[in-house]
Amino acid sequence: MSVFRDSPFWNSDHGPGHGREYVPMTVREGRTQPYYRSLAIRLLPSLLIFGFGIIIGSNHPLYLSIYSRRPLSPSSILPPALPPAPPVSSTSSLAYLPDPKEDIPNLVHYVYGLSDEPDQPDFPYFAYLAIRSSLLTLQPDEVWFHCIHEPHGYWWDRIKYYEGYMDPSTGQVKGLVKVRRARDVQWIGKDKKPVTHFAHKADIIRLEVLRDYGGIYLDIDTFVLRPFATHGLMRQDVVLGMEAHGLTYLRGIGGDEEMNPKGLCNAVIVARKGAEFIDRWLTSYEGFRGDKWTEHSVEMPWTLAKMYPTLLTILSERAFFWPLWTDDHIHAVYETTEYDFELSGQLAYHAWESKARPYLSALDPTTIHQIDTSFTRMARRFVEPDEERRWKAAGAKDGAGETGLDKGDEEVEWEEVQGAGGGNRRGGVRWSRETT
């Protein structure tokens, strides 16, 4: 008898002549489940520390500051000077061009007071100064204040009953504020998608108003520093400004490259009545989603601009939305005197009320002179003569405490703001009602 035939490793199904088949005594198995569990437990602390480091670094990058965006110099956070325009020797070659359109109407729009909540706080002092900045700088024909619920308080009365100014060329009084009933937006699009949040309602109303009347839309916390007309903005069809990305741990230096912005911010819009770009922007709300805060207000106009570049004029982020809402920029503007709005050459400053609320709510006719920062130096330009004396004589207390802004009236960068926490306290002025 063959040893192989009697062996337990011999396959009995094979008869003589069928050869031999080797059967291993054991089968090698892979890594067992307890091994991988043990490995995961050993690596878990390191992974958690690494993950927390990314989260903290993305919101509070210690190596980044406002100065990281420019070479460190006395004017490191200011935009570079533009080269001089080439001389034009003759205009005969331009004779074939069509005559320019009439200017966009010098009509300023605000959208405010959309909340149904009772006991709204008084109109805030900083918003009064922001509107005065547009009145004094833009010299508008009229200011239309679109609201569902009219504001109240000392500073609202000062704005509402502003006496206007005399147009020397016509002798007419201009700049008067007119309160207009805003549409209560409940839905949007052919599918009637519900619009519930005040921020989305305000986004839609501003576009409808510009489509129907044209003019300049401004958020209530926007300070106008230079006339738009003298810079050619009123001869365009639509003018929007870029909003840069914030620098983070994951988006480092160079991550705010100008041709790849976060989007086009809708806090300042200059538009001609019936402008095609505004129509397309409103049409994009067919895809509206209420859980997306900046999709239609910031990101969508940039998408449309790349699709229809001839329908609008785009300005650098330095025109309206610089410094940014990031902690380093808020710190530079509201806690130091290192940013110079006069030297910057920018046309306006969007004050990012949602991030700067502690600083703005501390302002009144007294503290604006006592607190010395880049922001207060700029805002003092719009303080009325003898304002503090009249305010105290009236016994008013407006200007401190709550800002008075409905949440829907703020231009909020929700993704960043909700995760960023409070403002920086890296020295400088600590703002409070007790500041002296």
DSSP strand (E) fraction?
5-15%
Mean pLDDT, rounded to whole units?
Answer: 78
CATH architecture type: Alpha-Beta Complex
- Into how many domains do the coordinates divide? 1
At CATH level 3, the topology is Spore Coat Polysaccharide Biosynthesis Protein SpsA, Chain A
Level of helix content?
A: 25-40%
Region (Disordered): 389-436
Transmembrane segments: 39-58
Family: Belongs to the glycosyltransferase 32 family.
Keywords: Membrane, Transmembrane, Transmembrane helix
Keywords:
436 residues; two-stranded antiparallel ribbon; single chain; globular; seven-stranded mixed β-sheet; disordered C terminus; Spore Coat Polysaccharide Biosynthesis Protein SpsA, Chain A; alpha/beta
Describe the overall structure:
It is a single chain. This protein has about 425 residues and is α/β, with parallel strands linked by helices. It has one domain: Alpha-Beta Complex (Spore Coat Polysaccharide Biosynthesis Protein SpsA, Chain A), CATH 3.90.550. It has a seven-stranded mixed beta sheet with strand order 5-2-1-8-11-10-12. The N and C termini lie far apart (about 110 Å). Belongs to the glycosyltransferase 32 family.
Write the layout of secondary structure elements.
Blueprint: H1 3-6, H2 33-59, E1 107-112, H3 125-138, E2 142-147, H4 154-160, E3 165-166, E4 173-174, E5 176-181, E6 187-188, E7 193-194, H5 198-213, E8 215-218, E9 222-224, E10 238-243, E11 263-271, H6 276-283, H7 295-307, E12 313-315, H8 317-320, H9 327-334, H10 341-344, E13 348-350, H11 353-360, H12 367-370, H13 374-379, H14 387-393, H15 414-420
Helix pairs in contact: 3-4, 5-6
